[in-house]
Amino acid sequence: MYDMYDPAQLRTFLAVAQTLSFTQAARRLDVRQSTVSQHVRRLEAAAGDRQLFTRDTHSVELTEDGEAMLGFARTILAAHERAAAYFFGTRLRGRLRFGASEDFVLTRLPEILESFRTDHPEVDLELSVELSGTLHERLAAGELDLVLAKRRGGDTHGELVWQSTLTWIGAPRLRIDPERPVPLILFPAPGITRARALEVLEADGRAWRIACTSASLSGLIAAARAGLGVMAHTRGLIPPGLVPVPARAGLPELGGVDFVLLHGRRGGHGRRERAPGAAGPSDRSLADALAAAILAGGDRLHRPADTR
Predict the structure, then answer these.
(1) What percent of the chain has pLDDT over 70?
(2) Is the pLDDT of residue 54 over 90?
(3) Is the peptide bond before 240 cis (omega within 30 degrees of 0)?
(4) pLDDT at position 3, please?
(5) What is the DSSP track for the chain?
(6) Prediction pTM value
(7) DSSP letter string over 277-293?
(8) How buried is residue 249: exposed, middle or buried, by Cβ count under 10 Å (0-12/13-18/19+)?
(9) Distance of alpha carbon 231 from alpha carbon 225, whole angstroms
């Protein structure tokens, strides 16, 4: 009555759902784009010929059935991984230094990390939450093993997790006077969003002033809710109580933004212990294991945390 859902097809589906791009999904999975399309078609057939994506020449979007498939795909793949680890797997242990951008403070990243800790209780996970620019610097200095952060403009390094656009946001009643400098709410340097905001305003010839600077996303949100000014922020992560600034304000476009996983030189201070009697696969680093968990749950990174 029911077709079995192929884990390879489910992984392909998740890659497309997270990047909203068949091309980017193919790059992430290191397969041809035709393979991605084939996997999606077969999964749709296995789901009773339900359409999982709407697709045109410019965009890819999840359908209602596609949204439903997200939860099922994560559950099936998680069960598949647990079974493989039990019968053929290895036990991870050691220390992993993971850095995450401030952007993900209000998302479901903690759920992903909690699941990772449950699956790998002997891993000492050290979390640093900082600006993307700072994380890049610490990774280059060998102080972190894995980083989830914005990619610098023009950079091609890293494994793409999610693509979005930046937008200007502020309090609903905020009004921007085109005759006066734009009041900005900014992260300090070397924040990537800060640099982009100043760059586009300078290129547009628009005067600006700094109304608030904070290294904490919570601090910036509080300032924006108080109506002190506008802030550049990821469109898919707009905090409650703030809204996109209307086009009539005349602020320049901020462009797109990529969130990527970047590995350090050492990739984690740990080892894998093979389960008794198991002839498991070749070793992989702690960073690889956490990266796989983040990629599997990447769609949660642009969904707000449950605050109930």
Answers:
(1) 89
(2) yes
(3) no
(4) 55
(5) --PPPPHHHHHHHHHHHHHS-HHHHHHHHTS-HHHHHHHHHHHHHHTTS---EEE-SS-EEE-HHHHHHHHHHHHHHHHHHHHHHHHH-EEEEEEEEEEEEGGGTTBSHHHHHHHHHHH-TTEEEEEEEE-HHHHHHHHHTTS-SEEEEEPPTT---SEEEEEEEEEEEE-TT----TTSPEEEEEPPTT-HHHHHHHHHHHHHT--EEEEEE-SSHHHHHHHHHTTS-BEEEEGGGPPTT-EEPPGGG-PPP--EEEEEEEE-SS--EEEEEEPTT---PPP--HHHHHHHHHHHTGGGGGSB----
(6) 0.75
(7) T---PPP--HHHHHHHH
(8) middle
(9) 11
Task: Kindly report, residue by residue over 116-140, the tens digit of the pLDDT.
Answer: 888 888 899 999 999 998 999 999 9
CA dihedral 187, 193, 196, 197 (to 10 degrees): -50
Check if the beta carbon of residue 133 is closer than 8 Å to that of residue 191. Answer: yes
Q: Are 40 and 58 in contact (CB under 8 A)?
A: no
State the Cα angle at 20 between 70 and 55, rounded to 5°: 100
Query: Are the C-beta atoms of 132 and 150 separated by less than 8 Å?
Result: yes
